[in-house]
Amino acid sequence: MKTLDVITFGEAMGMFIADEVGPLYKVKRFTRGLAGAETNVAVGLARLGYDVCWVSKVGEDALGEYIKYALQQEGVDISYIGSDPNHPTGFQMKSKVLAGDPQVQYFRKHSAASTIGVDYLLPERFLSAAHLHMTGIPPALSSSMYGFAEKALSVMKSANRTVSFDPNLRPKLWSSQDRMVREINKFAVQADWVLPGISEGKILTGYDSPEDIAAFYLEQGVKVVVVKLGAEGAYYRTAEIEGCIPGFKVAKVVDTVGAGDGFAVGFVSGMLDGLTIEEAVTRANAIGALAVMSPGDSDGLPSKAQLEAFMDEQKGMEPCSY
């Protein structure tokens, strides 16, 4: 069995991006793309040269075939993607905007991925990877997917593999905010590296400052917490060190969706490369900045050469402030 650098799992969706500005119901033409937080991370890591496997199910339909084809073209291992003849591949529609966040509508209820359960998990495939990247989305999709996420985390932790966790909050998928906070934190505190956005951190911990948000997780055993601060950069903290790394300058924000996934690509790859935490966060900020300058969720994720060129352009950044 092939040895992997990273394994991740979740739901991929077909994405239809509006070709014109305006409310979705008025748009006549869309461009097809790929969506899904974990697939964005898988694609980003593959473009940087890592061996990464994405685990999921898709429907036996055109969108499912497209997802497998698109990921294979990116170099992502698709050997652990099953096909479900009874449930469809989910999809989403995304508006085109000139500034700010686009409107996104999801069509994912009873999707193939949501039927994944513990019996779908192959421990030996997970253990072929050095690292597991998780988000808070799969546990919200269904009770069976929740169980799968629990088992995947347990298998990797028992084998002393590193785990990163991006909350990626989706309130509409949970029955209540209280339950969302409780369940997301249950997973987060078991991870080695936790990567919340500042607004997510406030919801999940009840604290307002990056320092207090980080302390909340560190006190429960997390090794590294990095709080994403948007354009301002990111705050990081461990039991020994803390600091803030400024964001990279962005010529024009095209689409903010996928920025957090790009950040995860940068941080996880940096840590796997043996960079210092400061260097890993700097790389994360760079890829997050590149991600917002393109329309698709993963269009702006760079190759290693593109990443190095972008980072070289912006040496000597201003100090971080928030």
From TrEMBL:
SUPFAM superfamilies, per the entry: Ribokinase-like
Keyword annotations: ATP-binding, Kinase, Nucleotide-binding, Transferase
InterPro entries: Carboh/pur_kinase_PfkB_CS, PfkB_Carbo_kinase, PfkB_dom, Ribokinase-like
Recorded superkingdom: Bacteria
GO molecular function, one term: ATP binding
Family the UniProt entry places it in: Belongs to the carbohydrate kinase PfkB family.
Protein name: 2-dehydro-3-deoxygluconokinase
Source organism per UniProt: Paenibacillus naphthalenovorans
Lineage: Bacteria, Bacillati, Bacillota, Bacilli, Bacillales
